[in-house]
Amino acid sequence: PGRDSMRILLAEDNPVNQKVTVGLLENRGHQVVLAGHGKEAVEILKNDRDFDVILMDIQMPELDGFAATKIIRQREEEIGEHIPIIALTAHAMEGDREQILEAGMDYYLAKPVIPKNMYDIIEKLGPVADDGADDKDEQLVSDGAVHTDGEIDEFQ
């Protein structure tokens, strides 16, 4: 309630994870475009930059999440925009946080993804129907979910 539908790019190679994640997001009213690997995600973004957020699996064939994010961020520097990227990782271990930040990702979720945690991040990043966007960054910091100052917390 109070949130607009978002357009989300999901880069995920596992068919089961694809189906579950797409279903969860569509049940919340979001539109999902699916990329089966990082290279496909990069290609989609070449032609269509109209996404509110990207969910990026870390381990994928052809181009993993780190390499895909690097390419995406390089292009964004050239055109002066930034789409939030949420890393999806089954290996949430010490040091992952730093590696994810260095790769240019904004947040991460540990797999298996807990729907509430995914919704919390995505919906706080999205447009607010009542135009309360000025309070969005402060709310992200104050609830302990994520930080906008270069620090991230994982969700497990």
In short:
With 156 residues, this protein is α/β, with parallel strands linked by helices. Helix content is 40%, strand content 17%.
Task: Write structural notes for this entry.
- By secondary structure, the protein is α/β, with parallel strands linked by helices.
- 40% of the residues lie in helices and 17% in strands.
- The protein contains six helices and six strands.
- A six-stranded parallel beta sheet has the order 2-1-3-4-5-6, with helices on both faces.
- Helix 1 (15-27) links the parallel strand 1 (7-11) and strand 2 (31-35).
- The longest helix is centred in the middle third of the chain and has 15 residues, at 65-79.
- It is globular, with a radius of gyration of 14 Å.
- The two termini are 24 Å apart.
- Residues 128-156 have low confidence and may be disordered.
Characteristic terms for this protein:
156 residues; alpha/beta; 6-stranded parallel β-sheet; 6 strands; globular
Task: Set down the secondary structure blueprint.
Elements: E1 7-11, H1 15-27, E2 31-35, H2 38-47, E3 53-57, H3 65-79, E4 85-89, H4 96-102, E5 107-110, H5 115-125, H6 136-142, E6 154-155
Parallel strand pairs: 1-2, 1-3, 3-4, 4-5, 5-6
